[in-house]
Amino acid sequence: MSDYAAIEKEARIFTEECVTNNRVDPALFAKYNIKRGLRDQDGKGVLAGITNISRIDAFEERDGKQVPCDGKLWYRGYNVYDLIRGLRGKRYAFEEAAYLLLLGDLPNEQQLESFKECLAKCRDLPTNFVRDVIMKAPSKDLMNSLTRSVLTLASYDDDIGKSDLQTQLEQCIKLISVFPMLAVYGYHAYHYYECDGSMYIHRPRPELSTAENLLQMLRPDRQYTDLEAHVLDIALLLHMEHGGGNNSTFTTRVVTSSGSDTYSVIAAALSSLKGPKHGGANIKVMHMMDDVRAHVADPTDEDAMRDYLRKIVDRQAFDQKGLIYGMGHAVYSLSDPRAVVFKNFVHQLADAKGRDRDFEYYNTIERLAPQVIAEKRHIYKGVSANVDFYSGFVYDMLGIPVELYTPIFAVARIVGWSAHRMEELVNMDKIIRPAYQSIMVPREYVPLQDR
Ligand SMILES: CC(=O)SCCNC(=O)CCNC(=O)[C@H](O)C(C)(C)COP(=O)(O)OP(=O)(O)OC[C@H]1O[C@@H](n2cnc3c(N)ncnc32)[C@H](O)[C@@H]1OP(=O)(O)O
Ligand SMILES: O=C([O-])CC(=O)C(=O)O
Fold this sequence. Notes:
Bound molecules: acetyl coenzyme *A, oxaloacetate ion
Number of domains: 2
Pathway: Carbohydrate metabolism; tricarboxylic acid cycle
GO cellular component, one term: cytosol
Organism: Subdoligranulum variabile DSM 15176
CATH superfamily of the largest domain: Citrate Synthase, domain 1
GO biological process, one term: tricarboxylic acid cycle
Helix content: 40-55%
CATH topology of the largest domain: Citrate Synthase, domain 1
């Protein structure tokens, strides 16, 4: 559907007027000490709250000075690397980490079993929901489908009007449980109606982990290997939480603070996450890599690669937004620990899957992009590969379709959003309402015939 042709001429004129009248003199941002992106000049975020859910380290103290360091990510006091090591390649991480993030402590065996049972019991959709909601108006944009499903689920919830903490937690657990179904079924509907593929709707199995269920619901034959399920599980672990300030979690806290319901809060968070500067970057990276492959024939030709990356940053190539997707981060400086883990998986998988040449492309871009960005932009803490740089490559090698990359991020991040919603509800009872410096000047009203 595109009816915009009918209004195109007028819209061009309106746009010009809109842009001209909205321009703010850049000097005023400095004059009023406005922090662009709510960040200080040195990149530190403006403090907006307190959280005990996670911590991100990107700087360390050396000789009394804060200097950039390799990134570290902590969930409830535990380094995520230790959480991964603690699994010893045997247990699945997602359910245990969800318990940790949501309830605040690592579960013992019995607590973990009862939490997993809860998730399994909740992994169920209302009668005909797949047919009536998910299969209606299927879209390549699975984040929109997911958001629509979440908002529609609200109308099936008899407790929607309740505001007590137990109801909010129950709703969060319910949504965490059904997210894999909403995402995968959304993909199947799109694949069937838009790509002439076949449709199969496999039910989740209560005895399986979230990662295993994702894979068995996705694949026609329901088959997956242990390695595939464990790689996906760790990918989920790495995406679950990232402090209160990341765009979608801050959205969660902002919308929660207005007193809105769980479904609306999660829909808002999804709308933030899909943005290409946030979680949507994992899909953008894949499209960008296709574009680079089409323009740079040899991944080891550093001059050609550097030239093409310069074109991307100069807005002359790819989507002309001036961004090398998968690179840079608002907080991390020298490295993002999640990208380090993903790169490790790439090492393990690329060779076995005959994807060494693709790996060369990633490798060269990871090395050159920070230099190219530094030539063109103001860098104060370093730019390095972020979580979205290698994740898509790993998913691709697991046979996961690209449309599902950001929804998979959401399947994990809803746990962090839920934890922050609960932390906001337990501790704060104040609507979040920052200020904007107004530069508007009052004007005398002009009657229509005199304008
Ligand atoms: C899960 C996640 O959300 S991880 C991030 C996923 N997003 C992406 O991969 C998209 C590409 N990256 C980016 O757009 C940015 O790095 C962001 C949005 C993640 C962080 O941006 P910022 O907070 O502005 O980062 P930072 O302050 O370190 O940037 C310094 C300068 O480098 C630029 N820069 C940072 N990363 C990039 C990039 N990948 N490509 C081009 N320029 C970049 C910034 O625009 C900024 O320039 P400016 O101040 O002259 O406008
Ligand atoms: O912290 C951020 O700004 C973005 C990010 O990496 C995430 O949300 O995982």
